[in-house]
Write a structure and sequence with these properties.
The chain has 395 residues and is α/β, with parallel strands linked by helices. The protein has 13 helices and 13 strands. The strands form three sheets. It has a seven-stranded mixed β-sheet, sandwiched between helices. The chain has a four-stranded antiparallel β-sheet with strand order 9-10-13-12, covered by helices on one side. Strands 1-11 form a two-stranded parallel ribbon. It is an enzyme of class 3 (hydrolase).
Length: 395
């Protein structure tokens, strides 16, 4: 079994804090501060605009993309970085719809992240398509011969429910449709295998389990069979075949490079590169085994200590990602009390206490402390103080 104490030591975790919110924002890798400072001092300061060539800034989105590819079951040259996750969802979905011009139905589920559904709704309106949203358990039955694109987030952001990517992708293909997967709550948390599942497109963010920092850039993957044909509606300068020819008309770059849009966020990518160093000797199978160990222990502990809380995640670890949620009628106040006591999770409306478990830095001691503090807060009623009911802008 991999020694996760080595990866835990690679992160700055504030004293007295048990951090179970890496599914929202990963903690800072210790190496990131120095890497960004060096980039600013040695590259931006000294090279100025020459850094695009001398320091490799221009090629950075592909270089970093190759490192993420290994964590999602993709190959070299198949992943590129840049922009936000919503932009990448828009690009991938528009490209997938264009590959099925005789069909105009997008299928998703009610557990998908709202931003993905907002993008799909707007794109459907602009392209004369229809967005069909069903219950997560009804997705397989809703795949029909009119479907153009199946668009799902692999791990549900509220419940942690994990879709069977290979099965649903195969069902979509049998119906003549394409499958687009959002890996926001998967990459760095579970054993993703896009190639093995034969998916068509995938996108994801890097500020959660990949620990790239707030606002870290997103990634996009296109299966090689679509790389030469995919034509996203959002065509940017960096995705041109010859950006510095300054042609008046757009010509898509070969392969995944056409999915680049704007100028890459070089400073943010430097921090992300430092964060990715921790993965060099770690296998996804070890990651997944540790994730299951932690989440199973947490569920058992909470149910024994706090029977009044209701499990809101699948009990079977094979159907769950690396997060666990419980329901409580005063979940927001309970979570604020937890945070004040040094156990950081988060709240999701209307009544969900959500806890993310990142094997890179969480361990069984974190589980034990979180269960103990949660039990105390629930049982002594200390959550019911006025300040814990005051809603903040970000929950």
């Amino acid at each position: 079994m991999f020694d996760f104490s080595k990866t835990r030591a690679a992160f700055h975790l504030p004293d007295g804090v048990t951090y179970l919110d890496g599914n929202s924002l990963g903690p800072m890798p210790r190496a990131a501060q120095g890497r960004v400072a060096a980039m600013m001092a040695d590259e931006w300061s000294e090279m100025l605009i020459g850094g695009w060539n001398k320091a490799g800034w221009y090629a950075q989105p592909r270089r970093v993309g190759d490192r993420i590819a290994r964590l999602i079951g993709a190959g070299p040259g198949e992943v590129v970085m840049g922009d936000t996750l919503s932009i990448k969802v828009f690009q991938a979905l528009s490209a997938a719809l264009a590959l099925r011009p005789d069909r105009r139905v997008i299928l998703s589920d009610s557990g998908n992240f709202p931003s993905d559904l907002y993008v799909a709704e707007g794109l459907a309106r602009a392209m004369g398509a229809t967005l069909r949203v069903v219950d997560p358990g009804d997705v397989a039955q809703a795949i029909g011969d009119d479907l153009a694109v199946l668009m799902l987030t692999e791990v549900d952001y509220r419940t942690g429910r994990r879709h069977d990517m290979a099965d649903l992708t195969a069902r979509a293909h049998r119906a003549g449709a394409l499958a687009l997967w959002d890996l926001a709550h998967s990459a760095g948390a579970v054993d993703v295998d896009l190639t093995g599942a034969d998916a068509d497109f995938a996108v994801g963010c890097t500020y959660k389990y990949l620990n790239g920092g707030p606002g870290a850039p997103a990634f996009i993957w296109t299966h090689p069979r679509h790389a030469a044909a995919a034509q996203p509606i959002l065509q940017g300068w960096m995705g041109h075949a010859a950006p510095f020819a300054f042609d008046a008309e757009y010509r898509p770059a070969p392969g995944i490079e056409r999915m680049r849009v704007g100028t890459p966020p070089v400073i943010a990518l430097a921090a992300l590169e430092a964060a990715l160093d921790v993965w060099d000797d770690l296998s996804l199978s070890d990651l997944r085994a540790q994730s299951i160990r932690l989440t199973q222990a947490f569920i058992a502990g909470v149910e024994a200590a706090c029977p009044e809380l209701v499990l809101n995640s699948p009990r079977d670890p094979q159907g769950r990602g690396s997060q666990v949620s419980f329901r409580h009628p005063q979940a927001y106040a309970v979570m604020q009390a937890l945070i004040a006591a040094g156990v950081v999770g988060d709240f999701r409306a209307p009544d969900v206490l959500r806890f993310g478990f990142a094997p890179l830095y969480n361990d069984l001691a974190d589980v034990e402390r979180a269960v103990g503090v949660l039990a105390r807060i629930v049982h002594d009623g200390s959550w019911d103080r006025a300040e814990f009911h005051q809603k903040a802008d970000v929950t």
